[in-house]
User: Fold this.
Amino acid sequence: MVTVMRTRIVNCQIFDPATGGDAFPGWVEFENGVITAVGKGQAPAPSAGAEITDIDGQGFTLAPSFVDMYANFCEPGYEYRETVASGSRAAASGGYTAVCLRPDTDPIIQRSDVVRFLLERGVFANMVDIFPIGALSMNMEGQTMAEIGEMAAAGARLVGEGNTFVKRTGFLRRCMEYAGNFGLVVMLTNEDPSLAEGPCHEGFMSTSRGLKCTPVQAEEIAVARHIALAELTGTPTHLVKISSAAGVRLIRDARARGINITASVSIHNLALNEDANAGYDAMTKVWPPLRAEEDRLALLAALEDGTIDIVVSDHDPHVIEGKEVEFDLATVGASSIELTFGVLNTLVERGELKFATVIRALATAPRKIMHLDGGVISAGMPADLVLLDRKAVRKVCGAELVSQGVNTPFDGTDLAGCPVMTFRRGRMTFAA
Assistant:
């Protein structure tokens, strides 16, 4: 008789987005990376010929694992800040099993060989699935189209220019049309650089402290242009890191008209507002700028009603020397991928978000946009799962992050909730 080897997570609260209801006590069984059975209540005894390893869920919440559509692991070229291996470990500790990487590395992700290199690095690290985001233009200069077709053939699913704004609208149109031929999603960041003067929100706070700033109209103009191009080309377009109520209004109107766009918000813009910059703490220097409180509230409402689909970590690690300088000279970005769930769950505890919205934004919607399997807990689906302690209180210490980057605006903050186990295709990649 052949012995069947299976793993089972028991004594947990299962939250399956497909059911649309509350979590229920139960168990999940998987074999060879695929879920084989899901049940309520106490798990039954193993059948004859089956050897099952039980993992005690300790009453924690079991949900589909997370997918991050916008992060920077810095490799190749900036390995002193982060590598695919260290970033993958940080991602796994944050509950992620798939991460999309920005193209602004050195060399830039603009050819098929760089795509293959990063895919191989992801396989070697063996912690999360890596999805390189190919550049639209060579050297991200907005002049000559990158090898979009060859990158798609090598395994790229997404293309975009990272945090760079493509100035030539006609060129961007051709890139979008060409990418659409390969079924790629075009990811666009939204800030007209001719209006952008600094990394802070234009308002009383920045003016009173003499900080360089950018008005929300810089985003509004860019979002309007990208919506118009999405309508013109018909190419699936993702608007990355929306930060303002003005951007939300435009997206809501466009989606009501049936335009093929999706949108994301950075964890920083959901949790923080411009007041975080008031003390000149360079750890709070991120892009897009931290906006006014009314913008933050509009983003929360847009995430709840589905106008904004997903939350991205915008993980961007930097060496500490880049932050321990004057605010205007400091590097832009924050190390955040392992803190994203804790920040969102803290907003849930405050009553600003629903837990179902968090799981949709981290697990279900990204997979839908990228046409990935999973995002639900049912037989036949990949065993990509995360066990969450929603009540644990963790004080963030930047120096203790798994990532090589210690630059976080949440340093010293108490966060409610954290991942305790992550499973990628049935293999445990993280255990607290």
About this structure: The mean pLDDT is 95. The chain has two domains: 4-62+381-394+416-431, 64-370.
